[in-house]
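Two proteins, back to back. First:
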Amino acid sequence: MEDSKIIDLFWNKDENAIKETSFKYGAYCFTVANNILNNKEDSDECVNDTWLKVWNSIPPLRPARLKIYLAKITRNISINRYNARSAKKRGGGEITIVLDELSQCISCETDIVSEYEEKELGESIRSFVRTLPERDADVFVRRYFFTESVAEISERYKLTENNVTVILSRTRKKLKNHLIKEGFFNEQK
């Protein structure tokens, strides 16, 4: 079923919306959740929570790209679950490594507290990613948005793991310089 028809089902509060979304995007959302949580049961619960959140948000929202909308919701729910789980000293997963890598560019010490500043930072990062060569942008997004492992990325793009690591390292350095120039990051950090 086309995404626009699925969105119409949600808009009309037709329960088939969840069935169709699960059929088309269930495995995709599970992968997003499991890349963060590395736990089947928690990932399944996050996917179910995604369907509820989408049900409650459409309407009034009408996402332009359903797949990306679902990924963002799944990702946020999964990160919240991961944070709750980590507070209990449980588990592991790729998200720890990803957040550690990104801390070189975006540290907690930047103290971005207002929603406006967060949106500005997000737009600055999106703008930066759009300047990258297509492959480098894809590798960056797969690693830092979808939290795919270096091994998965290297297999997808037929690169060595070392090559992927180098691409990510260089891209993080470029991002840090971009954020310094934009005023989001203190040069002396």
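And the second protein:
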Amino acid sequence: MRRSDREIRDRNDMIEVMKRCDICRLAFHDEEYPYIIPLNFGMRVKEGQIVLYFHGALEGKKYELMAKDNRAGFEMDCSHELIMEEVEGNCTMNYECVMGHGRVEMVPEEEKYEALRILMEHYHQEDFPFNRAVMPQTAVFRLKVEEMTGKRRAKAVKPDGNVNG
């Protein structure tokens, strides 16, 4: 990482950033170019293993690409804030992000309800009673994180309008 001063080194800090994100982008290998797709997600950390859960229609390009090569990259970001540095005449952006890679796999039918519950939990603090009737028309898959890195830029604006950081 070029800007090591912005690197998030602590794994638990990266997990906290992931909890604040609301979209995870997955990148799959396609013929000429990567295929990237933004998705809602849920996350579970168990015995040190981070697993990201996703859902979607029963068919589509991502499933075709997954079947050919189950390696995928991921990226998520949050805490966006535009910082105007009026004295210097420029601006910057605060952010936090986590990116990495792993392997995706379909969730077995018997684990689908729990995976969807984890996904819903990411967006609702309480247990959200979703309609189970949609489960047969819903594909659920997961990415087991193999490696990840995090980055943060957090400049503070002082009350006088000057920027710290």
